[in-house]
Amino acid sequence: METKIYTITDPEKDHDKIAEAAEIMRNGGLVAFPTDTVYAVGASINCEEAIDKLFEVKQRPKDNPVSVLVARDLDIHLVIDITAPNNQFMSKFVEEFWPGPLTIVMPRIQGRVPSNVTGGKLSVGVRQPDDPIARALIDEVGTPVAAPSANISGHPSPTTGQHVIDDLNGKVDVILVGPDCKTGIESTIIDLSEDFPIIVRPGTITKDQLQEVIPKKIYEVPSENSL
């Protein structure tokens, strides 16, 4: 596969490149792009075959869920059951930490989020990245995007465009190269799908910061999962 590599300096000035990448993603292609945490590689959640390919390219176990990225916080209703318990906690976290490096796990809308995104689980992790290129791309695609880190599983998470090129050139359709990622580590993941909020992956947003936002006790469990 020949990978198109585009440098994005400004999402507005380089809109034609972003629009082309979005069209490729809508048609079942894979696109790597920068976020505020690490570079991601994405597939539209409307393209189940592309999501399968995403797992193959990353050499990621199919029972290891991937997160979904949205362009706007209002888009969470497209993938998350906002009537589920703990919705009030989700709303507080969205208001306080989005856009930003926090992934929120809630019950998914069955039939809207393919089971291959979630490894067959009934919940899904969702995040709005604080990166103009990522948001412009996802908005142009017109659907939320399944988007784990843009690396082969087991390799270091990519924080520069060159890292992505080294790992995925020839394996994905497009690589959008932007500035180096400002955070450089994966997002904090908090699971609100059960009775008690649980941090399943630590990140730059700490347990203490999260606990300040809601009254319910937050637990923390170490995890090997990666975005």
Distance between the termini: 25 Å
| Fraction of helical residues | 25-40%
* Main sheet strand line-up: 1-8-2-3-7-4-6-5-9-10-11
Low-confidence parts lasting 5 or more residues at pLDDT below 50? none
Structural class: alpha/beta
Question: Percent of residues in beta strands?
Answer: 15-25%
What's the story with the biggest beta sheet? 11 strands, mixed
Number of helices: 6
Order of helices and strands: EHEEHEHEEHEHEEEHE
The average pLDDT value, as a whole number, equals 95
The whole-angstrom Rg is: 16 Å
User: How many strand elements?
Assistant: 11
Shape: globular
Quick overview of this protein structure:
With 227 residues, the chain is α/β, with parallel strands linked by helices. The protein has helices at 15-26, 48-58, 87-97, 132-141, 161-168, 207-211, and strands spanning 4-7, 31-33, 40-44, 68-69, 102-107, 123-127, 145-146, 174-177, 188-191, 198-201, 219-220.
How would you characterize the overall build of this protein?
The chain is an alpha/beta fold. 25% of the residues lie in helices and 18% in strands. It has helices at residues 15-26, 48-58, 87-97, 132-141, 161-168, 207-211, and strands at 4-7, 31-33, 40-44, 68-69, 102-107, 123-127, 145-146, 174-177, 188-191, 198-201, 219-220. Strands 1-8-2-3-7-4-6-5-9-10-11 form an 11-stranded mixed sheet, with helices on both faces. α1 packs across α4 (132-141). The two termini are 25 Å apart. The mean pLDDT is 95.
